[in-house]
């Protein structure tokens, strides 16, 4: 019933990747503020005497030997830049995949919760409802997990449909907002119940810890 949390990098791998990116950025900064320059070769002047290289101010304001950036240092700078960019891309890709997997898992848990409620599947509800679960009804009544598990299923012939679902994740917690369109029977006018559900990631998957419900006024009443 509960789906996996998606493939994730371990904390050790993420820490090492962040450390490598930090070191790469530090090396690039050092190269920009203190470039290594190759001294120009000694040359003979018109009078035949050997002239030594002249100290020249660099763009950073420091006095350095006149000349160009050492070719080996240029190669190192390029390598570090490419490595830093690659590490950043690798770190971003699993994060995006993790978020998409979490959203899919949470939406499935939301739908599974509704299905279990309609069918009276107590075992499924026990897996979905967190031990600290609290439900707040549109009339302001509060029910804990035990009371919610003891509640009977909706009346026969009634239906519930989830719409306008939006998920926001915050590492190991998530907030789902949406509308539950309820009909007591096929011919009855539907009632839209706006809800806010809070989920947390547990060893057993995503579980709901809180649910707050409000009745949306009919268009003429707004």
From TrEMBL:
Annotated InterPro entries: DUF4440, NTF2-like_dom_sf
DUF4440 domain location: 106-208
Pfam family, any one: DUF4440
Organism: Cupriavidus cauae
Protein name stated in the entry: Nuclear transport factor 2 family protein
């Amino acid at each position: 019933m509960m789906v996996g949390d998606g493939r994730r990098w371990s904390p050790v791998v993420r820490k090492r990747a962040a450390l490598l990116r930090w070191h790469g950025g530090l090396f690039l900064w050092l190269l920009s503020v203190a470039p290594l320059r190759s001294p120009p070769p000694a040359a003979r002047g018109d009078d035949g005497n050997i002239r030594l290289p002249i100290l020249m101010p660099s763009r950073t304001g420091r006095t350095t030997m006149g000349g160009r950036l050492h070719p080996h240092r240029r190669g190192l700078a390029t390598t570090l830049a490419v490595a830093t960019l690659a590490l950043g891309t690798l770190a971003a890709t699993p994060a995006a995949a993790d978020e998409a997997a979490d959203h899919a898992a949470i939406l499935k848990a939301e739908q599974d919760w509704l299905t279990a409620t309609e069918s009276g599947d107590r075992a499924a509800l026990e897996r979905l409802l967190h031990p600290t679960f609290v439900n707040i009804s549109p009339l302001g009544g509060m029910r804990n997990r035990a009371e919610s598990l003891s509640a009977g299923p909706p009346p026969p012939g009634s239906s519930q449909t989830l719409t306008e679902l939006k998920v926001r994740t915050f590492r190991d917690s998530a907030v789902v907002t949406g509308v539950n369109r309820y009909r007591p029977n096929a011919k009855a006018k539907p009632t839209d119940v706006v809800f806010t559900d809070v989920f947390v990631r547990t060893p057993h998957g995503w579980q709901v810890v809180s649910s707050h419900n409000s009745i949306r006024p009919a268009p003429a009443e707004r």
